[in-house]
User: Fold this.
Amino acid sequence: MDPVPALREPLEQPLKSVLGPPTAKVMAEHLGLHTVGDLLHHYPRRYEERGQLTHLADLPMDEHVTVVAQVADARLHTFASSKAPRGKGQRLEVTITDGSGRLRLVFFGNGVHKPHKELLPGTRAMFAGKVSVFNRRLQLAHPAYELLRGDGEESVETWAGALIPIYPATAKLESWKIGKALQTVLPGARDAVDPLPGALREGRGMIPLPEALLKIHRPQTRADIEDARARLKWDEAFVLQVALARRRHADALLPAVARRPRPDGLLAAFDDRLPFTLTEGQQKVSEEIFDDLATEHPMHRLLQGEVGSGKTLVALRAMLAVVDAGGQAAMLAPTEVLAQQHHRSVTEMMGELAEGGMLGGAENATKVVLLTGSMGAAARRQALLDLATGEAGVVIGTHALIEDKVRFHDLGLVVVDEQHRFGVEQRDALRGKGKQPPHLLVMTATPIPRTVAMTVFGDLETSVLDQLPAGRSPIASHVVPAADKPHFLARAWERVREEVEGGHQAYVVCPRIGDEEDDPGAGKKKPPEAAGEADAEKRPPLAVLDVAEHLAKGPLRGLRVEVLHGRMQPDDKDAVMRRFAAGETDVLVATTVIEVGVNVPNATAMVIMDADRFGVSQLHQLRGRVGRGSAPGLCLLVTEMPEASPARQRLGAVAATLDGFELSRIDLEQRREGDVLGQAQSGTRSSLRMLAVIDDEEIIAEAREEAAAVVAADPELERLPGLRTALAALLDDEREQYLEKG
Assistant:
């Protein structure tokens, strides 16, 4: 399809033919780099200046680092060990410094000879290895190193620039080896095809792509780096937005059945039953949805709303509108607990309108069925029959809805709850069950900053519910520093007792279950930002089973304490939840299974143990489980992290605001965007190498407009072969499918 195939060749070359198989293998396995083009787009993480040093003082623990520093002193020690009993063991300790801090390097055994000769005091070198702590001091054991002498042909050539690029590296491949490999392929950058339309590039005064690639890898000045970054960011934003614009363009051409509610039908009867009036926000968002449902191509809408803003009600009204118009609506939940819960709340809200075909059912009624994997065979057969005949207008279920056996009479609307837990393939499979593509409404309670919505869900139109319904109570949040002030923790348990004595209930949330089979590594995966906060990290995260036992015997003795976690049988989970909802349990000690959708208005307090082990958005989600009734909510974030640590600052931010959009920004700034995009893209690696979703808000917004204009003028991009090539590279099979199915 490419009229100029010659353009693609140099960058398409596989690395093994250029660098040799061993290096190419490591690059493919550890960095996901396969072609010359991939390597050229592996940008430096930062640059070291000859005269300037990394701050050794800020090194992260347990991460693979590269530092440029000077040897302060080197000492060779001998010692006795089992391998060298006669005191013949050798250990070389080298101290390096960068002016801000010192770091110890250790070499053992036969490995001491070369560094002993080379690492003389005053020598400057690049060192790479994994930072660990030994005797309360930071050290690198057996680091790889590269001397920065500036003599000899190769090093003069390699380190000629004053700015030394430091690449994202791995233990198997140090930054300077990546740098040398780039030396080899850099001449190929001249053949890079420019994806930006000429007029667009000139209009924005950006440098051509080959020049940007040369400047990012071999900058002479800081200004070179800025120019290159500005250009490469634009490419990423623009190519991704073109892909999304083409998706939207293609979607707009798909056929769908327009669904308009009858004026005196099921929806009207439901609205008459509601004991309250809709908030302005709910009315506005409902209008947007009804307008979309009334068109002849499929709706693709993302409904964002804070926990408790009434998203389920808005979605249910959309489902009823479709049933009114003769179609069926399916709601997909990520877990059985949640599906059962949605089913309960929907049937309660609808009352006799949910009893279609039954005695006592209203005349407009339809049937609301539940379909999950663990249902009994008879109930399942009946549910499948009701769907196939059209008897059931509304179905709520888990992945079980997607199985081949499930047939719909006329599927008109799919509502997906908690999008980010739901792979794209599943949405696609469900979409294929309609005679024509059904309308799609995606709900998320994790507020997504505008730019992420534009990048990740760029093919969906967005509606936001930002006001809470009347009668919701504010939630007071406080950080409880258990290590600095143990009496605060004792007070926290007293507060829980007070809530229970006042007739309310409480949640205690822990990071893990505690029945992991003799797994010393359980819970070892720690958030990267907790690095360096070593003492609190030494113990595994607190577990539900241990905490529940401790509370029942100690601080909460006499109260009714139960546990809930993901490894329990579905029936047991349900029984525990029912008892808690009925007020038969005072305190529920649980994992994050309660994060989504559990609704117990009488629960007013939540204590989150080891709160630093949860992400910002997750804490916000959890907190949304309390304060759902008329009594004010209380959320206590317990942590052993020291006051100055980043983890404590995160918790402080969560305690300081109830605004989920503000928190999602903080969350994004602290994690790397890749995590957010990766999570939302069902595990597809983030293609963003240079773009920072939060900082580059303007670039993304402008790129989106430019992309829409380009696609409107030339949907097949026939006049832009360079852009087509770039799209093909961005949308390798996996991503192509991701976007196809979006």
User: Anything to note?
Assistant: DSSP finds 28 helices and 21 strands in the chain.
